[in-house]
């Protein structure tokens, strides 16, 4: 594991952002459902925010770092092949499907 | 401990062993060894200490550590020291810093908190760890948190390998602990665990060498640690016990008890004022804060005193109590008095009075206790106590009516109702806010007293001061570890009673509480006095044997310890925090923020999302990876995408064969070339026949295919599709086949190629054969010459394969003629081409290029013939020499167009060349030029035109990679072109793709390596130009062809081609631009126009190749049957394709031609290039077709048109030539494209596969870098194709 990985705090806050959003969505959905059925059951679960163990977070950072590195390198290869010095979104799109499958 | 602390050494222990330090590996075994214990440990130690100080330095051989010498010394020195006088003034001293080191079995070290107990323990443990490799070391700490704290501290100090350390608490099951006891060496346990494990035999007591007991003051009575020691003593075990505590006890008796329990033999005592410790001790200010009792409390206190006073007086009257101020009496004194009274009741008191006195004592005790609660804890606890007591019992009965008490209680209730805070509480808040704002606060009960090692603690606030000095010291020890610390003790004082004036820091203290505090401080001083001198006088010590034999004298060594970072158990993730990740503090640059805004904060409100389906083409082959390999799923995706795209492009299966072929070709290639040179006409003929047969078969097969596909492009397409699949293989095959033919005859490198080709591309070979056959048939002998030429043209057109075939036939013919006729053959060959050219010209009549070509051909033909011969010979020679077989084909190719014709001739000539070689000498100069040109052309051809490449490939077989690549590339191109056109082509395309994928890269590289590569660049340009020309005008095509030839042969043909060449040049530039544009467009835009343009540009080469191919095919077709026939018959098929190509667009004709041409070059480009090329081919082909066939060719995709075209073409062999030229050009272009493609897409793979080749080619590559640069652009074109496909999809 490299020393220079992503800042766990940063990743964690990103995660939390996603979790909260998802929780909100879920809440929205469930509230819709709850109207029909009962509302109280899922409250405890919903109210409890998702959290990450410290090691899991560290691992996530490393994973993301590898993922991003790989994406950049592959896109760079494409860009280089096109003799372009700047990686554009289009380069990423070309390697994206395989990249996603590789991870 | 001071963080900075330095450490201690082992020496203390060493001390014991000093004299005899033996490494005790043996110890256990040799327990009986001279563990001559110093008789009386206590003695020994002191004595030893002094000397040891000096000797300390001599210490352990093992070299223990030692930066900590200071401690060591201090330890030793300290011992002898006289006890400091007890301070008169009660200081809030942290006095006890006793460090006791006890030897015999236990070295007990008492160190004041923060003075380094843990350090000493760690060093001792480390030394034992080293001395006794098999020994077990136990560290006992009273609570689990302390265990974990100490394990880390010890690890960080001396770095005992963590895998040998285990911390065990009651949370670990006994069975697990048993296994740990066996596997580990250093144990951090709680005393309870230790005791139990010893009792149940889980711990291997006999292996224990060192037992460290932290907080040893707990070892009183039946405490676990004392129990454990007793167990150990019973075993008996020879071990060293090191007991550590900051607070040995407040009384001599208790300390002695500890000594007894732990079998302490030596005492080392240090306090803060000792010199050896002082420098490491931070200041710790003790601040007594007087807090005035609240008004209510004072009133209550007064009332309580009122209640107390009569009872007190009464007791005093009974002379049970001493005459004292009842206001200052404490519950303890009262208790003592009662105790005294009970034990020895005064004689003068009656039994009844005794009972009364007992009752009074009880009442007073309760009252004083309430009063104490009031003073130290506030009104509420006092009130609760009072309430409780009033409910029942003697106290309630006796005092329930007491007015004063009632009033006191009333006041309490009133105060409580006001919810007033205890003055101490509010004061504490004040202190906290004043001094600790910004600090974190830990609120703890008495559990927080001991052992917690929090370096940063700056302030300890003791809410109650009236506690044992032991606990006070422990509390104070929590601070001042890292910085100066402060202890605030909050006292409540009654304003009335202010007797104690302490000049400490602040505060006037209140009576009872402060008094108790002061008294206890004083008490501890006395204990300190007892311990100062090592406790020799005060305590009885237990002897213990020395564990290290005297033989060994440990010496002090200073060793830098490298300590691995302590890794906590998985539950605790704190260590993560220790890794400081670089935080990006720089703000984003403007560009970066813009970028972010672009993709994440789009003004339009629509977020950009990467598309997964934007570039399906890119998913048909594995992308380059950096560190992460492709997954299985990716492989599946690629597979599926290839199949999906394969509809339009081709099958994957072909790739492998092609590759194989390529590889095969490579090796044999060189030999083939020679063989070719040797190449016998007969063989060629046979081959041709075979090829023809195959071609027929193929054609037949193709015809159906074409028929099926005809719907789209109809005849031509159909024919081509068939041909395309077959054609690819066949093309390869033909090349190979021709080679085969050669190979058959001579087993030339060609044969290898042929073999490969045969296996895969048999179709192409067949086509070639068919064509050739058809040509042969049609042309017969003379015709044969023509056919041969046509074949040559075809070969050129069809790519190398054809060329070889053609060449072979040609060579056969030529060889026959040449060999037989000698130079004539060569001449004939050129002538034939010329004728063909003428025919083509005728066909294309309208087309200036054709005429030019013809003229060129004629002129060149002659020259070419000669030159060809010469060229061929040189080529051959060169080829043979260098093994650059491809060049000859290249030359041929080059000849095929304008000069190409010559090249073509050369190709056929290749055999001819051999023949020619003889003539070469005669025409050497020209030939040389030609050769050069050819070489250039070849290079171009190879790179540019797949055909050339293909031809070259077979020839190049030597170049294997290049040739193979070329072949593969061409085939793929064809396939690609076909695929777009027809399904059949798709297969070929797929194959081509595959080939192009792997092989292409290789071929590209190879080609690059070869002159071709260089040429390729030129070719690429040429191709581009050609493409443009083709697309734009037939003349251009011709011009292109000419140009190419010009490039190659330019000098010779310049005059003829001058016009064309100029056009070509411009066109080339344009083409290049187009190509670039196309690439760009491919990448970026998928728009049809761009595609078309790109196609035209990219396909230009392909088109050329296609044209050539078509011409070739057409030429044979017309020769053979008519266009209409072509549909059904292979020949017809060929023509139809031509026509189709011409008429409909690249379609079929292009396929024939294209396949070969495209195969070599386009393959590298892969599906992308090939696709574009196909499209382009179609377009270009259409254009060229129109140009060649003019009217009929014009885009008339219709079969009729094609047929017409085919007819025309058939009629006009020259058209074929032109086509061939085009093809050559196309090939050139294609090659270029292919190269580019290869570079782009296949670079890595190709490099790997062709690593060897690459090595050779590297130089070439360097030269061709420019081309390479171009290459990348080309890949873009494929991108376009993809997009276009997407659009189509």
TrEMBL record, chain B:
First-listed, main subcellular location of the protein, grouped into a coarse class: nucleus
Chain intervals for the UniProt region annotation (Disordered): 34-67, 699-720, 1005-1089, 1113-1177
Residues of the Helicase C-terminal domain: 362-522
GO cellular component, one term: nucleus
Comp. bias intervals (Polar residues): 1123-1138, 1152-1165
Subcellular location: Nucleus
Keyword Nucleotide-binding: yes
Pfam families per UniProt: Helicase_C, ResIII
Biased composition (Acidic residues): 1055-1074
Molecular function via GO: 3'-5' DNA helicase activity; ATP binding; four-way junction DNA binding; four-way junction helicase activity; hydrolase activity
Stretches with biased composition (Basic and acidic residues): 51-60, 1015-1033
Sorted UniProt keywords: ATP-binding, Helicase, Hydrolase, Nucleotide-binding, Nucleus
Domain Helicase ATP-binding: 113-266
Keyword Iron: no
GO biological process: double-strand break repair via synthesis-dependent strand annealing; interstrand cross-link repair
Family per similarity comment: Belongs to the DEAD box helicase family. DEAH subfamily. FANCM sub-subfamily.
UniProt protein name: Fanconi anemia group M protein
Organism: Morus notabilis
């Amino acid at each position: 594991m490299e020393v220079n990985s992503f800042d766990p705090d940063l990743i964690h806050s990103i995660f939390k952002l996603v979790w909260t959003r998802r929780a909100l969505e879920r809440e929205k959905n469930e509230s819709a459902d709850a109207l029909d059925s009962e509302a109280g059951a899922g409250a405890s679960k919903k109210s409890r925010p998702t959290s990450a163990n410290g090691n899991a977070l560290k691992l996530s950072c490393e994973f993301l770092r590898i993922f991003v590195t790989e994406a950049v390198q592959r896109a760079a290869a494409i860009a280089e092949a096109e003799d372009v010095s700047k990686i554009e979104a289009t380069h990423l799109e070309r390697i994206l499907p395989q990249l996603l499958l590789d991870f | 401990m001071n963080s900075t602390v330095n450490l201690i050494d082992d020496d203390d222990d060493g001390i014991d062993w000093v004299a005899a330090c033996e490494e005790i590996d043996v110890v256990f075994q040799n327990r009986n060894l001279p563990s001559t214990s110093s008789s009386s440990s206590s003695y020994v130690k002191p004595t030893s200490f002094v000397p040891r100080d000096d000797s300390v330095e001599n210490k352990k051989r093992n070299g223990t550590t030692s930066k900590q010498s200071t401690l060591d010394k201090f330890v030793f020195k300290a011992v002898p020291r006289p006890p400091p006088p007890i301070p008169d003034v009660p200081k809030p001293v942290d006095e006890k810093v006793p460090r006791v080191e006890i030897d015999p079995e236990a070295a007990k070290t008492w160190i004041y908190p923060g003075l380094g107990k843990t350090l000493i323990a760690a060093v001792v443990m480390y030394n034992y760890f080293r001395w006794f490799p098999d020994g077990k070391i136990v560290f006992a700490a009273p609570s689990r948190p302390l265990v974990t704290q100490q394990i880390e501290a010890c690890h960080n100090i001396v770095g005992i390998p963590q895998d040998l350390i285990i911390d065990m608490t009651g949370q670990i099951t006994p069975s697990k602990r048993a296994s740990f006891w066996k596997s580990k060496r250093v144990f951090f346990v709680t005393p309870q665990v230790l005791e139990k494990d010893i009792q149940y035999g889980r711990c291997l007591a006999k292996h224990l060498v060192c037992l460290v007991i932290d907080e040893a003051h707990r070892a009183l009575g039946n405490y676990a640690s004392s129990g454990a020691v007793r167990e150990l003593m019973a075993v008996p075990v020879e071990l060293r016990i090191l007991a550590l505590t900051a607070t040995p006890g407040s009384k001599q008796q208790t300390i002695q008890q500890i000594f007894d329990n732990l079998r302490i033999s030596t005492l080392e005592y240090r306090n803060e004022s000792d010199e050896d410790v002082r420098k490491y001790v931070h200041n710790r200010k003790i601040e007594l804060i007087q807090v005035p009792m609240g008004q209510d409390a004072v009133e209550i206190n007064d009332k309580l005193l009122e209640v107390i006073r009569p009872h007190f007086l009464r007791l005093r009257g009974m002379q049970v109590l001493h005459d004292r101020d009842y206001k200052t009496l404490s519950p303890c004194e009262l208790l003592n008095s009662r105790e005294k009274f009970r034990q020895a009741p005064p004689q003068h008191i009656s039994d009844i009075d005794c009972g009364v006195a007992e009752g009074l004592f009880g009442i007073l005790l309760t009252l004083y206790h309430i009063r104490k609660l009031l003073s130290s804890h506030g009104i509420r606890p006092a009130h609760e106590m009072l309430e409780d007591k009033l409910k029942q019992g003697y106290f309630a009965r006796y005092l329930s009516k007491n007015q004063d008490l009632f009033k006191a209680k009333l006041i309490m209730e009133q105060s409580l109702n006001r919810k007033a805070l205890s003055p101490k509480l509010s004061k504490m808040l004040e202190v906290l806010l004043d001094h600790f704002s910004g600090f974190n606060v830990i609120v703890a009960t008495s559990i927080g007293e001991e052992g917690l090692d929090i370096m940063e603690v700056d302030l300890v606030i003791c809410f109650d001061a009236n506690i044992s000095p032991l606990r006070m010291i422990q509390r104070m020890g929590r601070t001042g570890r890292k910085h100066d610390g402060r202890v605030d003790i909050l006292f409540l004082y009654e304003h009335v009673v202010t007797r104690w004036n302490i000049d400490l820091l602040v505060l006037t203290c209140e009576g009872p509480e402060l008094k108790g505090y002061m008294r206890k401080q004083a008490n501890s001083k006395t204990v300190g006095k007892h311990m100062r001198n090592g406790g020799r006088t005060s305590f009885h010590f237990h002897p213990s044997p020395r564990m290290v034999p005297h033989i060994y004298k440990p010496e002090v060594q200073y060793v830098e310890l490298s300590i691995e970072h302590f890794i906590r158990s998985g539950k605790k993730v704190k260590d993560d925090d220790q890794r400081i990740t670089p935080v990006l503090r720089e703000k984003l640059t403007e560009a970066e923020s813009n970028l972010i805004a672009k993709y994440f904060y789009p003004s339009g409100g629509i977020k950009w999302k990467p598309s997964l389906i934007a570039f399906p083409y890119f998913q048909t082959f594995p992308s380059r990876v950096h560190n992460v390999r492709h997954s299985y799923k990716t492989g599946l995706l690629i597979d599926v995408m290839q199949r999906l795209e394969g509809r339009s492009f081709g099958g994957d299966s072909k790739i492998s064969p092609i590759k194989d072929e390529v590889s095969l070709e490579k090796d044999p290639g060189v030999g083939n070339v020679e063989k070719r040179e040797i190449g016998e006409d007969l063989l060629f003929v046979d081959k041709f026949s075979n090829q023809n047969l195959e071609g027929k078969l193929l054609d037949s097969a193709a015809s159906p295919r074409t028929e099926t596909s005809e719907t789209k492009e109809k005849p031509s397409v159909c024919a081509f599709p068939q041909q395309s699949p077959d054609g690819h293989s066949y093309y390869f095959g033909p090349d190979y086949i021709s080679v085969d033919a050669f190979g058959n005859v001579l087993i030339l490198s060609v044969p290898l190629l042929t073999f490969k080709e045969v296996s895969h591309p048999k179709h192409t070979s067949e086509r070639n054969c068919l064509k050739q056959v058809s040509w042969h048939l049609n042309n017969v002998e003379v015709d044969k010459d023509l056919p041969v030429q046509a074949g040559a043209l075809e070969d050129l057109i069809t790519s190398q394969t054809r060329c070889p075939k053609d060449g072979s036939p040609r060579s056969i013919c030529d060889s026959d003629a040449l060999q037989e006729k000698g130079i004539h053959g060569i001449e004939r060959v050129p002538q034939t081409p010329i004728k063909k050219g003428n025919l083509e010209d005728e066909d294309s009549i309208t087309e200036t290029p054709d005429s030019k070509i013809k003229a060129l051909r004629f002129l060149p033909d002659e020259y070419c013939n000669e030159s060809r011969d010469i060229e061929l010979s040189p080529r051959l020679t060169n080829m043979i020499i260098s093994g650059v077989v491809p060049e000859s084909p290249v030359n041929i190719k080059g000849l095929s167009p304008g000069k190409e014709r010559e090249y073509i001739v050369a190709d056929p000539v290749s055999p001819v060349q051999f023949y020619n070689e003889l003539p070469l000498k005669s025409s050497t100069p020209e030939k040389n030029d030609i050769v050069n040109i050819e070489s250039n052309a070849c290079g171009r051809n190879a790179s540019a035109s797949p055909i050339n490449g293909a031809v070259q490939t077979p020839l190049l077989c030597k170049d294997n990679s290049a040739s193979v690549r070329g072949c593969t590339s061409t085939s793929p191109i064809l396939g690609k072109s076909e695929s777009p056109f027809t399904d059949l082509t798709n297969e070929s395309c797929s194959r081509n793709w595959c080939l192009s994928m792997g092989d292409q890269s290789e071929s590209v590289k190879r080609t690059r390596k070869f002159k071709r590569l260089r040429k390729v660049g030129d070719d690429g340009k040429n191709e581009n130009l050609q493409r443009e020309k083709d697309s734009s005008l037939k003349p251009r095509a011709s011009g292109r062809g000419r140009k190419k030839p010009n490039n190659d042969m330019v000098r010779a043909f310049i005059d003829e081609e001058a016009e064309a060449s100029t056009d070509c040049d411009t066109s080339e530039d344009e083409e290049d631009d187009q190509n670039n544009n196309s690439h760009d467009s491919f990448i970026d835009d998928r728009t049809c126009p761009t595609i078309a343009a790109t196609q035209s540009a990219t396909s230009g080469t392909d088109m050329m190749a296609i044209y050539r191919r078509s011409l070739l095919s057409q030429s044979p077709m017309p020769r053979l049957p008519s266009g209409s026939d072509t549909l059904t018959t292979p020949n017809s098929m060929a023509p139809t394709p031509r026509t189709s190509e011409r008429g409909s667009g690249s379609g079929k004709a292009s396929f024939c031609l294209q396949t070969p041409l495209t195969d070599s070059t386009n393959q590298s480009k892969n599906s992308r290039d090939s696709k574009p090329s196909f499209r382009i081919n179609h377009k270009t082909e259409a254009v060229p077709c129109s140009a060649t066939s003019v009217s009929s060719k014009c885009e008339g995709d219709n079969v009729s048109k094609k047929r017409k075209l085919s007819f025309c073409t058939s009629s006009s062999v020259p058209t074929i030539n032109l086509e061939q030229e085009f093809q050559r050009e196309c090939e050139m272009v294609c090659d270029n494209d292919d190269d580019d493609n290869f570079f782009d897409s296949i670079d890595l793979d190709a490099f790997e596969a062709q690593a060897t080749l690459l090595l050779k080619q590297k130089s070439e590559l360097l030269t061709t870098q420019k081309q390479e640069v171009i290459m990348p652009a080309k890949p873009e074109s494929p991108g376009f194709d993809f997009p276009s496909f997407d659009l189509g999809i």
